[in-house]
Amino acid sequence: GENVEQHPSTLSVQEGDSAVIKCTYSDSASNYFPWYKQELGKRPQLIIDIRSNVGEKKDQRIAVTLNKTAKHFSLHITETQPEDSAVYFCAASRNQAGTALIFGKGTTLSVSS
Amino acid sequence: DGGITQSPKYLFRKEGQNVTLSCEQNLNHDAMYWYRQDPGQGLRLIYYSQIVNDFQKGDIAEGYSVSREKKESFPLTVTSAQKNPTAFYLCARRNRNQPQHFGDGTRLSIL
Questions:
Q1: How far apart are CA B2 and CA A72, in angstroms?
Q2: Residues of B in contact with A59 (CB under 8 A)
Q3: How far is C-alpha A75 from the chain's CA centre?
Q4: What's CA B51's distance to the chain center, in Å?
Q5: Running DSSP on this structure, what letter comes out for residue B90?
Q6: Which residues of B touch A104 (CB under 8 A)?
Q7: For A49-103, how does the pLDDT look when each residue is reduced to its tens digit (9 = 90+)?
């Protein structure tokens, strides 16, 4: 089955810096890669996702890149703000109806002002 | 709540007791999922269901059971066989190949 590795487990940056979180996956048939943000005590919320037919997707300060050959994908946050502090999870699945997402173990991002 | 409701928010289990966590969705989505979250462990898949009256085991199904008698409901029972049930349990829904959305979770503790 699918296995997703996520690095680093913790990341501390200064406000205004960029943050990068990386994930690798094992199943070459996986073709859907979402990223979730979870604030303390709350549910994970989708912030961006990418499908395997594109290599990059941007949404304001957030971008995701995908390298299918190397089987890895990354989340990039630019101009970080204190409210970006949270736990971020990557996930992977085959993009078939009902297929379950398999998650990485998460990255705790701390943005200090 | 993103179209999916979990209850209760907090739940306590005594030794040898089975407890059931509720998950209801009102968006007529086919697929529903249960995940367990422990600190530093990410989200681990317990069970999922793609259609009514059918479900599949995830990576950590031992000690848990589910049912899917109605499309809108996917309850999770934590049985007495689950020796370490203390965790945050998250239910999710997904429509076809659209993004997956989570409920607000149930925090289960042992008395």
A1: 29
A2: none
A3: 5
A4: 15
A5: E
A6: 42
A7: 999 888 999 999 999 999 999 999 999 999 999 999 999 999 999 877 778 899 9
Query: How many CB pairs below 8 A link A and B?
Result: 56
Using an 8 Å Cβ cutoff, are B23 and B103 in contact? yes
Phi-psi category of A26—alpha, beta or left, where left has phi over 0 and alpha has psi -120 to 50?
A: alpha
CB–CB of B42/B58 below 8 Å? no
For the residues B63-87, what does the mean pLDDT come to?
A: 95
CA angle A15/A17/A19 to nearest 5° reads 110
Pairing status of strand A102-103 against strand A107-112: unpaired
CA A8 vs CA A5, A81, A89, B79: distances in Å: 10, 19, 11, 35
* φ/ψ (deg, to 5) at A85: -65, 125
Residue-wise over B72-91: b if at least 16 C-beta within 10 A, else e? bebbbebeeebeebebbbbb
Q: What angle do CA B57, B44, B17 make, to 5 degrees?
A: 70
Bridge-based pairing state of the strands B4-7 and B19-25: antiparallel
